[in-house]
Structure formats: structure tokens, C-alpha cells
Amino acid sequence: MADGNRDKNQEFDITATAQWQALAEHQPEVAALHLRDVFAEDPNRGDELTVDVGDLHIDYSKQRVLRETLTKLVDLARAADVEGKRDAMFAGEHINNTEDRAVLHTALRLPADATLSVDGQDVVGDVHEVLDRMGAFTDALRSGEWKGYTGKPIETVINIGIGGSDLGPAMVYQALRHYVTGSIHCRFVSNVDPADLVATLDGLDPETTLFIVASKTFTTLETITNASAARQWLVKALGSDDAVSKHFVAVSTNAEKVSEFGIDTANMFEFWDWVGGRYSVDSAIGLSVMAAIGKEAFGEFLAGFHIVDDHFRTAPLEANAPVLLGLIGLWYDNFWNVASRVVLPYSNDMSRFSAYLQQLTMESNGKSVTKSGDHVTADTGEVFWGEPGTNGQHAFYQLLHQGTRMIPSDFIGFATATDDLPVLSASDDPLTAQSDGSMHDLLMSNYFAQTKVLAFGKTAEEVAAEGVEERLVPHQVMPGNRPSTSIMSHELTPSVVGQLIALYEHQVFVAGAIWGINSFDQWGVQLGKSQAKELLSVITSADSPAAQSDSSTDALVRWYRKQRGRTP
Ligand SMILES: O=P(O)(O)OC[C@H]1O[C@H](O)[C@H](O)[C@@H](O)[C@@H]1O
């Protein structure tokens, strides 16, 4: 099937291939094995089923795969022409066929001396021109040279955006808490629930606050509504419309709408239609992050993505981290009927990483038709979720360990703490207590223990041998055989955050390429938006007909209008 000349947008049924069939036949053999036996038979897998990329050390040996499984999965990737599709993406071909667009987030992190021309346009030149403008602007903010309307320097930057225009910067800002240098701090507003804006503005001084209105389209209802309310808050406080130009900038692809909103396009930072919203944190959408950490650290962040891009583009599929992890995800999704993957960063600063990944992975691969418009013949789109360790351990790990469902997990952990404190016993005199180790070591001991227990569990014999009462033995058996990947790095640096994001971006690509779907459009979010617009006029008016197309929505709308005092 792999054919370099094949139209990359013309899909075929991957499930009809011999490679798919081989995996389907192989699955029962693997399913019959316990990871305890798999490790006993292949004792070196813990050292060998690993891959290093940049600063990431990835151990996938605790996955329910044999070496043979990986070979078969790579064969499937070749059958789906993952390499050809990958090269088409990097080259700027219009692989987003439903919107007729290139998909070039990888160009956002190319070094300035790289060359890439797409549709006759010097993409690298454009990217670096905007990066330079972002650098000059954030330098001015950070040095205090940029003054608010009343002459005071800016202290707080509020990013107003939603989806890809919020999740990336909010997640990265938190992850890089230790790299916030200077006096600029950021807050993020996304929800059209006014509680978000009101709570975020609470206690802020309009004279020292600057808003970044971040929206690719600049038509997103939530963002424009919040931005208008924020403008009113500012203008009311500062007494003049003229204050807007000193307190509002925009990040968008739509200059016309930006200027319609009243933001001077001189204060607009551009990106391009070939950057998907959920792939845009490394574009001007990251402006708030740059304001907080500075352009040099932002440059390191971009360089981190680029390390993984290069690896993804050049490493053989057998040793290619995003390819292997994407394939292992698909292995469970399609051959084990396992729908979800839990992501568990053992890093409090990465608390928002799972939320970020939810958009990246599920908006990309939650599709039911192939690029050719045919219904897919296998399930697509893993469900991603998660919480940071150790919080998750005290909430949902019970189900991971002893529930009837198998949920593969990705553990993420760091050798060096972003913060550390000594472990002291509560009874010690706080003034003289001796340290009994580091809290970071305690955190990481949990990481290792969890992956171990998930994989190997505890048998009834082992439980009984501890003298556990017979009737309680079945309750205390830990089945094990629950797969996980361990992703480790030395420290949570800007580069490492970039590397982690790119690692997941390309996993999404690999799975989407095999399924033959378009991972870069999101038609499924449109209908709800347009119906919300229609319903707004219905729920806010006492006169308009309450009857909608179904009795449930109709009754709910009537109930709501009554509560709001709008209809009898
Ligand atoms: O950046 P914007 O154009 O405001 O879009 C914000 C978000 O809204 C949409 O609903 C899309 O589903 C997302 O992919 C996008 O990130």
C-alpha cells in the first residue's frame, strides 16, 4: 500500500490490510500473558524497550507489547504510509484537505537560518519576523518602557482566549512558574461564564493591566464577549477610550476583525491559517508566556519542540518516540477495545497538562470519517484525561488498580525538583528537626511504586502470606498487568515543556495518519455554536416562540425563562 506517489488525502481502508489482520490475530496471544511473565521471559526489556529523545527518557517496557508486537505495529505504520504523510506535513502540503490548508506548526519552531517556502511564501522569514516583534514588545513590557494610559508600567497581563488560544499558554505559564522573571504576571480568562472574568479582574489595577485578546479567527463568541467586557472595565476606570491602545493587544490571523474590534493592527501579532488552534502555543498565541519568561526562555521553549520534530522526521520508525507511543495507543484503542489513556504528571506545575492534551488529542482525532469522506471502520480517538500525582492516587487510582477496565497510563516525572522541602516528622520541634529526606524524593518514590504495582500487582498467595484474613484476600489482590509508559526528564525547563508537547502532537499525527482521518479540522464543534446563537434570542425574549424542535429542549427553555421571569 505504501506508495510515495499516492495522493496523501485519498484514503483506503486500513483495517482491510494484512498488517491490520496480523495485529488482530496477535492480540489474543499477548492478552493471555501477564506482564510478570513477559518480564521473566524477556528480562532486558526494562533496559531495552526505551527510547531517548532530547532530554526525555521514555520507558515503554511496561506496556502490554512483545517485541514482535512492536514490529507488527511498525509494519502497520508503513502500510498506512505514515512516513510519506509525515513528510507531506513537514513540506507544507495541504494535508488539511477539508479546509485546503497546510499544517505547519513545525515551522513555528524552525531556527531562523532554516528555509521553507510554502505556496510561494517564505514561512521561516514570516515566523521570525513575528517572533522579533513579540520580543520587542515583551522587552518593552518587561523593562517598563511600555506604559499604560496613566504612565504606569504594566504588571499584569491577562490573556483572553479559549480552546487553543487559552489552554496552551495557561498550561505553559504554570509549568514554567520558575522561569517567570521580571515583574509581569499573567492571568487567563476563557469561559463565557462571567464568573471567570469577574474573578480574574478581582483586585487588579486597570492602570497596570494589559489584555491580550487571543483568537485565531477573532470571531469566537466567548473571547469577543469577554474582551468587550474587559474593555468596558478598563475604559470606565480610566475615563477614556484612548486608554484602549495602551492596554489591549491582539493575537490573530484576522486583521480585519481585530481592527473592527478597535485594536490598532500595529498592536496585533499575526499567525497563519496553517497553524491549528490546538497547535498554536508556539505561535504568537504564546505572547503571554513570552511576556512572563522573556524572549530568550521562549526561544528555548521553541528549540525544545524542534528537537522532537527533527527526531520525528528522521528517526527510523522502530526507534521513533512519537511513532512508538502513537502506535501503542492505537494498539489498545483498536485491538483491545480500550478507549482511554490517563496522563499523570508527577509535577504540580504540570497540573494543566492533561486538560491541554484533551484538546490536542480529542479535537484532533475525534473523527468518524476518513479524509476521503468514508465512514471509518475502526474506532478513532483515545479519550485523554488525568490529574497530577500524587493527587490522582487518592482519587481514581483505585479503579486503575482494581477496576475491571484496563486504562493505560503515561507517567511523567523529573529528576530535579522545581521546588523541594525537607521531610520532617510532625512531632519534631520545627526549630531543631533534622531532615529525613526530600519531599521530591517522596513524590518520585510514589511515581515508581505506582508504575510497578500497576504492572506487577500482588497475587492471592502473596497477600495470604502476609497473614491477611482469608475472606479479605480477594479484596486485597492486585491484579497488575496494567500497562504504563514512564516519561522521565532531568528538569521541567522551557525546552522540556516544548519537547513534551511535540511528543504528544506527533503521536496524535501518527494515529490520525493510520486511521486516515484529518487530524487538523474540527467541524464537530460548529453546530453547537450556531444553535447557541439561535437559542440566545429564544431564551432572552418573552415573546418569541419557546417551542424548539424537541420536547426536552423546549421544556428546559420554558423552565429557564420562567426562572428568569421572562414568560408566564
Ligand atoms: O482562536 P479562536 O479562533 O478564538 O478559536 C478558539 C477555539 O475555538 C473553536 O471552537 C475550536 O474548536 C478550537 O479549535 C479553537 O482553539
UniProtKB/TrEMBL annotation:
Main location: cytoplasm
Subcellular location: Cytoplasm
CDD domains from the UniProt entry: SIS_PGI_1, SIS_PGI_2
EC number, UniProt record: 5.3.1.9
A Gene Ontology term for the protein's cellular component: cytosol
Entry's transmembrane regions: none
Catalysis performed (reactions): alpha-D-glucose 6-phosphate = beta-D-fructose 6-phosphate
GO molecular function annotation: carbohydrate derivative binding; glucose-6-phosphate isomerase activity; monosaccharide binding
Enzyme class: isomerase
Key words of the record: Cytoplasm, Gluconeogenesis, Glycolysis, Isomerase
Pathway assigned to this chain's UniProt record: Carbohydrate biosynthesis; gluconeogenesis; Carbohydrate degradation; glycolysis; D-glyceraldehyde 3-phosphate and glycerone phosphate from D-glucose: step 2/4
Gene Ontology BP annotations: gluconeogenesis; glucose 6-phosphate metabolic process; glycolytic process
PROSITE patterns per UniProt: P_GLUCOSE_ISOMERASE_1, P_GLUCOSE_ISOMERASE_2, P_GLUCOSE_ISOMERASE_3
InterPro entries membership: G6P_Isomerase, G6P_Isomerase_C, Phosphoglucose_isomerase_CS, SIS_dom_sf, SIS_PGI_1, SIS_PGI_2
Residues the record marks as active site: E363, H394, K529
HAMAP family: G6P_isomerase (MF_00473)
UniProt family annotation: Belongs to the GPI family.
Function as written in the Swiss-Prot or TrEMBL entry: Catalyzes the reversible isomerization of glucose-6-phosphate to fructose-6-phosphate.
Name of the molecule in the record: Glucose-6-phosphate isomerase
Organism of provenance: Gordonia jinhuaensis
